[in-house]
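Reposting from the mailing list since nobody answered there.

I have sequence plus structure tokens for a pair of proteins and want to know whether others read the tokens the same way I do. The first protein:
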Amino acid sequence: MVTSDPVRPRGRVSIVMTGTLSESPARSRQWLAGVQPGIGQPLPAGTVRLGERLTAVRARGHGRYTCTFASGAATHGVAADHVVLALPFTRLREVDLRGIQLPAPQLAAIRDEPLGSNAKIGMQFSTRVWNAEHWTGTMYTDGIVQSGWDTTVAQPGAAGILIACRAARPARTWAGATA
């Protein structure tokens, strides 16, 4: 089910994080709390499982789903009331989605959209100088650094880290790529 309407879990919540975790666990908890209040609270043991790869999503009827995960050669299914596919399209292409109905434009985006290129630079400061000027640390420019943010915004202490992103061609140049 794909919808822009907010959804509320009807039963147990199972979170399986695939890929890499955010560089800021505090920011991840903050984001999750905005999606579903209370979801960032301590979860029962075994709720979050790392190192598993989503291989398929199937509708079970009545708005419920089964997600199939692989760990090595073994696979297992997880029953879910709601599924949030928070994967880059390049990885989502590897997931068998034939068992769910998605709108044609969404399927086309999953199939055709490329993964963008960027390079992140983390700059650590002994004090959050941007706060002294009443700035948030969030930036967007049309220069060499195209965007950035304060990755320590919810963390205690005086020190802070700004993340700056270069995109597309400048990022590939930094990496030594030619395309």
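The second protein, same order (residues first, tokens after):
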Amino acid sequence: MTQPFVSVVVPCLNEERYVAACLDSILATTYPADRLEVLIVDGMSEDRTRSIVAAYAKRHPAVRLIDNPSHITPAGLNAGIRAARGDVIVRMDAHVVYPPDYIARSVAAQQETGADNVGPVIVTRPADGHAVARAIAVALSHPFGVGNSRFRIGSRERCWVDTVPFGCFQRGVFDRVGMFDEELPRNQDDEFNFRLAQHGGRVLLEPGLVAYYYARGSIRQVARMWYQYGYFKPLVARKVGRVKTLRQLVPSCFVLALAGTAIGAAANLRLTGAALVALGGALNLAVVLLNRGMPVDAGAVAAAAASMPTDGLHVTLTGATALKPLADVIAVPIAHAVYSIGDVCIALGGFLVPFVLLIRR
């Protein structure tokens, strides 16, 4: 049987450090080369990204460089989808490397299950060998850092979920559901998958499908990214008419309860302080219950790590247990705190909108 023609769409901006490794991993695919094109949609990068991609395009006819003057991810995705020739669209990220069987597995899972969107489990790798970068990677792989998001903590079996990263779509999905929302520089995947579900579509997490994501390497970079996630989550909720999952509320409620506890203690308001401590404890319990029955699938992650492609960027994440305290003390609190600030900015009706200037950096 003839394999469907696949268009890989990769939006990017200033990814000179990662784009070559990403392209190498895509071009090493086991999928038939004559049934594949790779569209790098660049948001007018100011570093060497464009020249690197242009060099690949000269050597590999399947690679094309497309301009995204709007700079933002959803506009890049839409430009790539419109330019694509494929019957199947695989959305990828330049900050990620992919195993050789990634595309073939994605297409096979879609054909076997009839899923409208198929996505991988993410194995989070550190940006470099420094302790903070490695602690960030640990924090973004643990339930206390990311809640019960199955694509981050792993799964032992196929499951239907609310969202996945780096989806594999039948092209007809976009005719039926529409394109990515260009009002959402972040969290556009969440909104799209919610819209897909409203149209009767299904999103599949395929545990044998793995993507190796390089986390941001500094606390400042993580803070900026998670602030943006927190800022745009309520906008997604406003667009779709409801909060998608309980886990989206936990960081904000937890941080606000801790802040209220500190204020109550400082003011010596014993009754209020006790009530807030109880609330903080209840929210702690919510985190535990949210993750109950959903432990990190160590076996799946270990198996995935064993097949880590050689990409010139890989840093071995050894001593993860030793790094866990650093992740808990630094990376997790900062991620939750700035996520919550983003939520509060929207909750206050935009009075703190100047913070959104971070989005443009």
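Reply #1 (J.P.):
I read it the same way you do. Residues 120-155+203-361 form one domain.
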